[in-house]
Design brief:
The protein is built from five helices and no strands. The protein is an all-alpha fold. The protein has two domains: about 55 residues, no CATH class; about 35 residues, no CATH class. The protein is elongated and about 65 Å long. It starts with a helix and ends in a 19-residue tail after the last helix.
Length: about 110
């Protein structure tokens, strides 16, 4: 993705031309709106924490995982079950089968 200035310059460069009045006008327009872009960035930056927390709250609101009684940390459960299975079954001469591997539901 190119910024507005690079885009204007590249369009003229591809054609082998100097910047014409139309290109200069677009650059002037871009620079004139600079203060507005800076204010928008400052507002977003100042409110970033609340923007993110609101977005996460709405995105995760009562899905299968986050519903009361659900389990938000499924990856952690899988990792713990895998680690338990590896440590209990990796010692020779015992061999583990899927039947003797710990259940995912038993890891908390």
């Amino acid at each position: 993705m190119q910024d507005a200035i690079t885009n204007v310059i590249n369009q003229s460069d591809v054609q082998g031309l100097y910047l014409d009045s139309n290109a200069i006008g677009r650059l002037e327009q871009y620079y004139a709106s600079g203060e507005l872009r800076v204010r928008a960035a400052a507002t977003i930056s100042a409110n970033a924490a609340s923007i993110i927390s609101d977005a996460v709250a709405k995105a995760l609101l009562y899905t299968d995982i986050t519903r009361p009684g659900g389990n938000m940390y499924t990856t952690r459960r899988y990792a713990l079950a895998s680690a338990t299975w590896t440590t209990t079954c990796a010692t020779p001469p015992t061999r583990c089968s899927p039947v003797t591997a710990p259940s995912l539901m038993s890891v908390s």
